[in-house]
Sequence to fold (279 residues):
Amino acid sequence: MGFASRLTKSAVGGMITGDICCLYRNSGTIAPQVVIAGERKPVVRKEVLETAQKVLLVTMVFIVLTIGYLSWQAFHPPDDTTALGLPSPVPTDTLVPTGEPPPKVGIVAGHYGFDSGAVCPDGLQEVEINLAIAERVVTLLKRKGYQVELLGEFDDAIVGYQADAFVSLHSDSCDIAGVSGFKVARVTNSAVPEAEDRLVECLWNEYEKWTGLARHEDSITPAMRQYHALRKIAPHTPGAIIEMGFMLDDRDTLLYEQEKVARGIASGVICFLEGGSGE
Ligand SMILES: [Zn+2]
Fold:
């Protein structure tokens, strides 16, 4: 309702009670203003409206910041090392450039591209476990700055393979109840026994630290020491094979703690490449 119409309504009908006050006294002009009783509410409503607008603005800013934060988190997942509360022998930083090419590592996902490997009564296949963990190991080592290749069991590239380290990942059979543990071996007639012994030692120590699994050295077979891939790689390439655990009793570790298992292997490789023994 406009000012003029209010006056008219007041004058003519007398139905509206109101008072007149003066604005702009300094200008010498009397500018009457009618404040109609009962119509003060719009002023209150205006204040409420302004408050509501401020609240809305703050809420929107909060929502935008929340969405921004969640988006950032989605692309920067937290390092689960902290979540595990474990030491981190796998640094997430890359190597400092030295002009030298980064170390090259070959990781074989046992049976991948060839067969299923051991199979459990419920259908769980060894190759599924080996591949899932091998992919995690590759990711961890690439994060370290190394050149890393994921290889299949009978990959053509394995013949004469040249690298700074080569590790083949397998899991032990599913048909022996009451047996738990892991084992590591190198080829019997090694051309670089000192290097391969140190790679094996690093894997024993780091894998044990990360997974908490026991060593099962008694079940290392001659076949494991004559593993075909270790005989095919270039003689000077340090290689090892690891049986990561038994698919029956160590099933939970192999299926549900794959990040720890992968970190154990990646840390073993890093230990070796950085000149340690894992102790
Ligand atoms: Zn196997």
The pocket of zinc ion is lined by residues 110-111, 117, 126, 170 (CB under 6 Å). The longest helix spans residues 41-75.
